[in-house]
Structures are given as structure tokens and as C-alpha cells.
Design goal:
The complex is a heterodimer of chains A (266) and B (332). With 266 residues, chain A is of the alpha/beta class. Helix content of chain A is 26%, strand content 30%. The chains are: A alpha/beta (266), B alpha/beta (332). The structure holds flavin-adenine dinucleotide and adenosine monophosphate (AMP).
Chain lengths: 266, 332
């Protein structure tokens, strides 16, 4: 039987935008999306799509991508489809505005997963590059009562089990968990595949399923945030850099050595 | 969960001693407990916890919960979670501090969701808002481009502290504390995940996190070979080599070399960055370095806003000259 794989993917502002484009609105304490720089699918979530497609390359599987948020850029969110995913489900609602709280996000994602009939394997990114929380996946796993393995760099499914090479500080460990399970992946998984022309064509024809919060069965006690934002600011660096300038770059290197010696850092 | 009182630290005893991140948590916890005027306690999970219990007391813990069980000897998330959840339900702490280590990254979020409370992730600093006895946490977000101050709405308020954000305090062996044994019931069937193999790929030499001098290379090196020049400099000054994610993603060095938000956090006395632009996600792992030196051919590179000393130039010329001069100076 085909393995049902769910991938959780978030739309984020491009983390590689020039630093000067990063702005916070002081009044609302919100990050202002940079004009003219389109959002992207969170980088680690593209790794998650890749991990799912690699399983699909090897055996019969379906890949459904699920996202919650507001103001989705459809062409951006369709990228996983053009890479080869089968289905896209967008849960769009003002209640799911991008905040630092993971609790609501996880509740709604878990509810969407239930409504979709559950998955054998759920793959997520290790963290979203906006709030860098690294907790939504573990929350979803906890809510759905699933085992979880984080920081995967290789994910295989055999005999009803998932086998994950999990990154540890000095190497990796091989972890096995029964299905259904949830796995998060990191960039060490490797470069996600590029959409093919055929994939792009197929994706244009596919219509995402779009739900709002009211399409899901959640009671209000589960829909209040657990973490609140008191302040948000850009840290200022008070570092003055002393540029060492010699007659030529080699000379600068020598002067730098002298400086470090003088300052007793070496 | 009820109002709760006291600060509970989830300790690490994996080496038979109190781990360095637990000592850091004790420094953070002492400050928070004092501000609250409440008790500081440490939970030690393992099969034997006598030595670390004494260490925890010497570092300011008033109480140690010895959660002894053979199945806790090795880290396994389901066992740990069951044990910590049981303890939290029993003692209702106001604040729980976890280190954001390899293990803590998994434990803290699952614990928060299991208890139905919020979690402040990846904190650099925690303090107390005295009016509401709320924990205030400063934490970098957006790859370090911004700092958020957050608080948790419910008790226990859980914070995961970034390793090396706090300096351990001095041990005082005259301190007295109470050791309370907390039995838990665990059986092997609870473990859903299983580690079947461990592969260590560590480079030889000094560990990146422990090195006093680190020399990292980035995308501007253009390939794996130039890392040999970095190794040479490292040998001259007794340091270790690291890298940016761009260099790791290109396959030039193993992932264990990566410094940054999703790599290692380092705080060396001297950090030399060669052909690295200084993106916030890289700086997130090295901004605690005492002296940062940048070698970059682009005078506009962000790193020149963060470094103490900089050389604008091609590494191919600057680096060999630096290495040769340091060799001369240090051998003199
Ligand atoms: C969620 C997330 C997490 C991330 N985590 C990390 C992380 O943990 N660690 C990390 O490092 N990055 C991380 N990144 C990536 C980060 O944003 C940058 O892309 C990365 O750090 C860039 O690496 P770099 O400086 O080597 O490359 P570049 O930014 O391409 O910079 C190369 C530099 O080399 C200089 N150069 C080129 N040629 C020469 C020469 N001949 N001589 C001297 N200088 C030269 C250039 O002027 C340039 O400044 C993360 C990104 C995201 C989105
Ligand atoms: N709004 C969202 N929609 C879909 N997936 C999400 C969302 N938020 C987080 N995730 C998933 O959870 C991972 C970790 O996110 P976070 O816990 O927010 O750092 C991401 O890489 C995604 O896989």
C-alpha cells in the first residue's frame, strides 16, 4: 500500500535578504516584509519536501504539503508541487497570523492532519527561519501522540519503520521509530531538487485545497497563544572595526600578526 | 496547572558529572530564584546521581531531586519526558529551565506541549518581571537579525537556554542542600524511538566548542583545498578550524565544522574569519567571541561591522603572510 506522507511547510520572508532590508515596525512590533523581495518556502521545509520525494522515488507514496498562515503567495507555495508533491493544503485565516507562538500553529496543523485522515509519516523542517522556534513539529507530534525524531539528514522507510540518520554534534546516530512518526530534517539532507519544466506545468494545473480555521474542529480553549511578545528590536553592534592597512595585502597580514601579538590575543 | 513555586532545572549527568550546560543553568537559575525569592532545585535523571547532586548543591541548588532509574542512564526522549512530567506534576514549579543541547532541543518543546504551557526557546538571558512574577526571556529571532523579549502565559513557565549564554558561578562546597529521591515508574515498552547505531565523524584535535582560538573559512575560499591553509594557521597558534554553512553545504568540510545558528556556538578568545560575509545566522554562533578578526576582500561585507580587527584583501595573499608572521613571532 502506498505510504501517506505529509510535509509541513511554512511561508517565510526571505532569510537571505540583505540585512539592510530587515525592518521592524516599532509601533506594532512586527517585522515588515521587505518590499520587492518575495517570500519563500522555509529552506528546511524544501529539504523536507526533498526527503519525502526521495521516499516516493523508491516506493509507492503520496506527498501532501500542508501550511498555515495568512497572505499566501500561491506561486511560492506551489513550489513543492512543481518539485513533485501531489497535493497542497493551505489553511489561511487571520487567527493564524505569523506570531512567535507555536502553540496555535501546532494545534491547527494537527487538526488539519486529522481532517486529512492522518499520515504514516510527517516530515517537517528543523526550524522556521523567521522565529527560529524549532517547536511546531514536536508540538504536532505531542498533540497527535506520535513519536518524533529531529534533525534528520537521511530518512528511509522500510517494513513499517522509519530509519533516520540524526545529526548529533560530532556525527550522527541512526534512530528507528515505528510508523506513524514525525521527522524533522536539516540542510545536511542535501540540495532540494529543482522543479522540472513538466513539474511546473503540472503544478500550474493543480488547485490547492484552501481551508479557514472554521473548517477545522477545534474548541476555543485550544486556540489561545501561550507565549506573548513583549518587545522586538534590532540589536545594535557597538563594535568599531580597526582596519589594518599595510603597503599591500601581504603587508597587512604581517601587521595583523603584530597587532594580535601586541594585544596578547596570541 | 496551579500557580506553582520555585525554579526547577533539568540537569545533565551524562558523563557521571554535572554537565557544563547544567552549571550554566545554575547560574541563570540562581539569579531568577533570587529575584523571585523562591527555591532553586535541580532534577537529576540517571542511574546514579550522588556526585552530580553534590556538585549541584555547591553551585547553588537548594534541593536536588534524584530521579534514579536504570532506564534513565542513557538519554531516551520517552523515558525522560515521562520522568520529568511526573516530577513537574508532583512539585509544580513556577519556572523550568532546560539547556538547549542536543537533548534539550527535543525535551523542552515536547514537555511544554505535554503540560499545555508555552516555551521560550533559545534564550540568551532570563529575568523576572516582579509585578507578575513572570519570566522574561531575551532571545534572538529572524536568524539573529532581531531580539525578541517574550513571556509565557501559563505556569510552569519553561525556558530553553542557549549553551554558553551564561558563565557558571564558582562552586562553594560549604553549601548545604537537600537530596530528595523521586522514584518513577518506567518500562521498556514506553520507548518509541531507538538509537541503533552511532557514527562519530569528529575531526581530530581540539573540539570546536572548547578551542581558545578558532579559524573559520567561508564560501570565498572557493573550494576544499584552501582549508589546508587554515589548518596550518591553526597549528601555529594552537587553534581549531571551523566553517560557515556555505562551506559545509558545498561539501568542502563536514557538518560538524559549522559555526552558527544551526551549527555550533563558540566563544573563543580569538575568532579569525576568512572569506565569510558575516551573515546574522553565522554571527549567532560566534558573537560571544572575545576578539573577532575578519579577512575579506569586500570592504562592504557585514563582518566589518562586527569584527574588532579587519583586513580588506584577498585571503590568498593575506592569510599566508599572517601565518608566516605568527610563526615567527610565536617561536621567537
Ligand atoms: C535558517 C538559517 C540558518 C542558517 N544557519 C547558519 C549557520 O549556522 N552558520 C552559517 O554560517 N550560516 C548559516 N546560514 C546561512 C547564512 O545565512 C549565510 O548564507 C552563510 O553564512 C554565508 O556563508 P559565507 O559567509 O561563507 O558565504 P557568503 O555570504 O557568500 O560570503 C563569502 C564572502 O567571501 C568573500 N570573499 C570572496 N572571495 C574572497 C577572497 N578571495 N578573499 C577574501 N574574501 C573573499 C566575499 O566578499 C564574501 O563576503 C543559515 C541560514 C538560514 C536561512
Ligand atoms: N505555519 C506553518 N505551516 C506549516 N508548517 C509549519 C508552520 N510553522 C512551522 N511549521 C513546520 O515546523 C517546522 C519548524 O517550525 P518552527 O517550530 O516554527 O521553527 C517548519 O520547518 C515547518 O516544517
Amino acid at each position: 500500500m502506498a505510504i501517506k506522507i505529509g510535509v509541513l511547510a511554512k511561508q517565510v520572508i526571505d532569510p537571505e535578504m540583505p540585512m539592510a532590508a530587515f525592518k521592524i515596525d516599532d509601533g506594532s512590533k512586527k517585522v515588515v516584509p521587505p518590499p520587492n523581495i518575495p517570500p519563500v518556502v522555509n529552506g528546511f521545509d524544501e529539504n523536507a519536501v526533498e526527503a519525502a520525494l526521495m521516499i516516493k522515488d523508491a516506493q509507492e507514496a503520496t506527498v501532501t504539503v500542508i501550511s498555515t498562515g495568512t497572505e499566501f503567495a500561491l506561486d511560492v507555495m506551489k513550489k513543492p508541487l512543481s518539485m513533485g508533491a501531489d497535493e497542497l493544503v493551505l489553511l489561511e485565516d487571520s487567527i493564524l497570523e505569523n506570531t512567535i507562538d507555536s502553540f496555535l500553529t501546532a494545534q491547527y496543523l494537527a487538526a488539519a492532519i486529522r481532517k486529512l485522515g492522518g499520515f504514516d509519516l510527517i516530515i517537517c523542517g528543523r526550524q522556521a527561519s523567521d522565529w527560529d522556534n524549532a517547536q511546531v513539529p514536536l508540538g504536532v507530534a505531542e498533540i497527535l501522540g506520535m513519536a518524533s525524531v529531529s534533525l534528520g539528514k537521511k530518512v528511509d522507510v522500510t517494513d513499517g519503520k522509519v530509519r533516520v540518520e540524526r545529526i548529533i554534534p560530532d556525527g550522527y546516530e541512526v534512530v528507528e521509530a515505528p510508523l506513524p512518526s514525525l521527522v524533522t530534517v536539516s540542510n545536511e539532507l542535501g540540495q532540494p531538487r529543482y522543479p522540472t519544466l513538466r513539474g511546473i506545468m503540472a503544478a500550474t494545473r493543480k488547485k490547492p485545497t484552501i481551508w479557514s480555521a472554521s473548517d477545522l474542529d477545534l474548541d476555543s480553549s485550544q486556540s489561545s497563544a501561550k507565549v506573548s511578545l513583549r518587545d522586538l528590536f534590532v540589536p545594535v553592534s557597538d563594535q568599531d572595526c580597526e582596519i589594518i592597512e599595510g603597503d599591500d595585502p601581504g603587508d597587512s597580514g604581517r601587521l595583523l600578526a603584530l597587532k594580535l601579538r601586541e594585544d596578547k590575543v596570541i | 496547572m496551579a500557580e506553582g513555586t520555585g525554579v526547577l532545572i533539568i540537569g545533565d549527568t551524562s558523563g557521571g558529572e554535572l554537565g557544563s550546560t547544567t552549571l550554566e543553568l545554575l547560574a541563570a537559575g540562581q539569579a531568577v530564584a533570587t529575584e523571585l525569592g523562591e527555591e532553586l532545585a535541580v532534577a537529576l535523571l540517571g542511574d546514579t546521581v550522588d556526585v552530580p547532586a553534590q556538585q549541584a548543591i555547591a553551585h547553588g541548588s537548594q534541593k536536588v531531586y534524584a530521579v534514579n532509574h536504570p532506564l534513565l542512564a542513557q538519554y531516551q526522549i520517552d523515558f525522560q519526558l515521562t520522568a520529568v512530567e511526573a516530577l513537574c506534576n508532583e512539585i509544580s514549579p513556577r519556572v523550568i529551565l532546560v539547556a538547549r543541547t542536543n537533548e534539550g532541543r527535543d525535551l523542552a518543546p515536547r514537555l511544554a506541549f505535554r503540560l499545555g504551557v508555552g516555551l521560550a526557546q533559545d534564550c540568551l538571558e532570563v529575568s523576572i518581571d516582579p509585578a507578575e512574577k513572570k519570566l522574561l526571556a531575551n532571545r534572538p529571532v529572524y536568524g539573529g537579525n532581531a531580539i525578541a523579549v517574550v513571556s509565557c502565559e501559563e505556569t510552569p513557565q519553561i525556558a530553553a537556554i542557549r549553551p554558553k549564554a551564561y558563565e557558571p558561578t564558582e562552586a562553594d562546597h560549604s553549601r548545604q542542600g537537600e537530596i530528595v529521591s523521586f522514584p518513577v515508574e518506567l518500562d521498556t515498552s514506553m520507548a518509541r524511538t531507538q538509537v541503533v547505531d552511532t557514527v562519530i565523524e569528529e575531526a581530530e584535535g581540539i573540539k570546536l566548542e572548547d578551542a581558545h582560538i578558532v579559524i573559520s573559512g567561508g564560501r570565498g575560499l572557493g573550494g576544499p583545498e584552501p582549508f589546508a591553509h587554515l589548518e596550518e594557521l591553526a597549528k601555529v597558534v594552537g587553534g581549531t578550524v571551523g566553517a560557515s554553512r556555505a562551506a559545509v553545504d558545498s561539501g568542502w568540510v563536514p557538518a560538524s565544522y559549522q559555526v552558527g545558528l544551526t551549527g555550533k556556538t563558540i566563544t573563543p578568545d580569538l575568532y579569525i574569519m576568512v572569506a565569510i560575509s558575516g551573515a546574522s545566522q553565522h554571527m549567532a554562533g560566534c558573537s560571544g567571541s572575545k576578539v573577532i578578526v575578519a579577512i575579506n576582500k569586500d570592504a562592504e561585507a557585514n563582518i566589518f561591522k562586527e569584527a574588532r580587527y579587519g583586513v580588506v584583501g584577498d585571503w590568498e595573499t593575506v592569510l599566508p603572510a599572517l601565518t608566516a608572521a605568527l610563526k615567527e613571532l610565536t617561536q621567537a
